[in-house]
Amino acid sequence: MNQTILQRNNVNISGKGNQYMIFAPGFGCNQSMWRMIASEFEKDYRVVLFDYVGTGNSDLQAYNKERYSDLSGYVQDVLDICEAIDAHNAIFVGHSVGSMIGILASIREPKRFERLVLIGPSPCYENKLPDYYGGFSKEDLTGLIDLMEKNFAGWANYLASAVMQNPDRPLLAAELEISFCSIQPDIARLFAVATFFADNRKDLPLVPVPALILQSNEDVIAPVKVGEYVHQSMPQSTYKLMKATGHCPHMSHPEETIQLIHEFLGILIVKDKS
Fold first, then answer.
1. Which residue ranges does UniProt annotate as crossing the membrane (predicted)?
2. pLDDT band at residue 103, thresholds of 50, 70 and 90?
């Protein structure tokens, strides 16, 4: 294994089994956000957790503004990790922008992935009316970036509450806010621009492997219409509208998330044998 890559992205591998299961965080998140569900798969898979460069406990010295000015740098992070651990036919579980990073990685190197699990994916956050509803106007997104520049702590507090929802469980939003604030503001801003102004709609029909779309019932970041659009645009997708609310069901509703992933993997195993 390439220890340089593993250290750069703070890669941690656990569990049994021969097949890798790679968990990719969403924007502003680190690998600890997977703790409520990742351990449930350790008995059957080699679970891989990592941080994007510039987040979590990654090697900050490896951060390069040019590389990470759009999502391709983060896609390369994932492919570098796959090469370092010699992953083939892996299960990829991505949250939010991590879903899109996994989609792009699977298109570039299909041999690395067998299936994708996409939690709250959005190929484009900006409304492109009348043909596409992403949930945000261009002014909304520009305002979010402006707030980051003027009041980073206020931005983190606002976005954490909007992302997590579930106001009856404030500790979840507080954890997300702490994660946001742990990232250097200039790095967070560039990642935010790369995330919220991306438009990957044209890539959805190119996904070469089966995918599960987990869509929260109430999600202001990736609304139901977006999840439906992703499903309609991907040729081998399975769509599940969850009872969960908020953009982080793997944290707020881990039991439902685990059950739906198990069902998806089990159904595909049966199909493969027939």
1. none
2. very high
